[in-house]
Amino acid sequence: MAISDEYGSTYCAPIFLSKPFMQDGHTAEKANGTMTFVKYQNARYVVTCSHVYHQQKLHTSSERHLTAVGNSKTVFQFGGYGPDGYVSAFKALQKTELDNQNPDIAIAPVGRSFIELYMLKNNKDFIDLDNWIEPDWGYNCHKLACGYATEHKVQTETHVLAAYFQAILEPTLPANPTRNTFSLFSSLENEHNFYFSGMSGGPVFTKFEESKNLSAIGIIFEGTPGSSKEWALRDEGAFFTGSDVKLDALLLTPSIFKQWLQMADLL
């Protein structure tokens, strides 16, 4: 698959968990997820995972907000304060952290200010579901998964550089519209020492047969190895090794995205 090293970064970005008004500054230790930019019926949205949303722990002493930080020191907070306190702009489809019945998706509508102040300045664009071309689901090629790993950021004197990962992985089963999720897996020759926590919310792409064109077909919700702390606690009988990479994703199509918007009361 002939693609640029940062193809997917056009359509996604890191989203940071920040204390109110960035009280904790901006450091490489700050946790992040990934947000994907989606256009549907001429409206623009930011998509991440419900479990990223719930890490905000709204209305508690450890409250954090989902925040985008631009290269030009632009900070965009997805929410605002009202009479009852802070209200997130994201609508989570999983209403609690224990909800396994609904898709692990959170969606926020975005307007002109976010597009002009953040996206245009950072060379970002939307996955256009209004002009989405359905891939040949029977063409079982490798998939391109993209996102920002929280444990691999680098801090300089002036910037926090988020670690963008772009992996080409093999599907364990062909992705198709009859299943809501799919898994990607590859085993490398050597241990890679990468941890994929933070890629949740990132996009997955497939290519068309005999074509260089790519189509978005998924949103990542889990990665293995996840965090280094969890990985260190695995027992000797663990199935995965340090040379394995596994990513799980929710299927993304225009009809599925419409269902997500309806569930979020955004359509």
Distance between the termini: 36 Å
Biggest sheet, in brief?
8 strands, mixed
Q: In total, how many domains does the architecture comprise?
A: 1
Number of helices: 4
Tell me what the structure shows:
- This protein is mainly beta and 267 residues long.
- The protein has a single domain (9-25, 32-263), classed as Thrombin, subunit H (Beta Barrel).
- The chain is 10% helix and 38% strand.
- It has four helices and 16 strands.
- The chain has helices spanning 50-54, 112-119, 228-232, 254-263, and strands spanning 12-18, 32-40, 43-48, 65-69, 75-77, 79-82, 85-88, 91-92, 106-109, 127-128, 143-155, 160-171, 181-187, 203-207, 214-224, 244-251.
- The strands form three sheets. Strands 1, 2, 3, 4, 5, 8, 9 and 10 form an eight-stranded mixed beta sheet that branches. The chain has a six-stranded antiparallel barrel with strand order 11-12-13-16-15-14.
- A hairpin with a 4-residue loop joins strand 11 and strand 12.
- The protein is globular and about 50 Å long.
- The N and C termini lie far apart (36 Å).
- The mean pLDDT is 90.
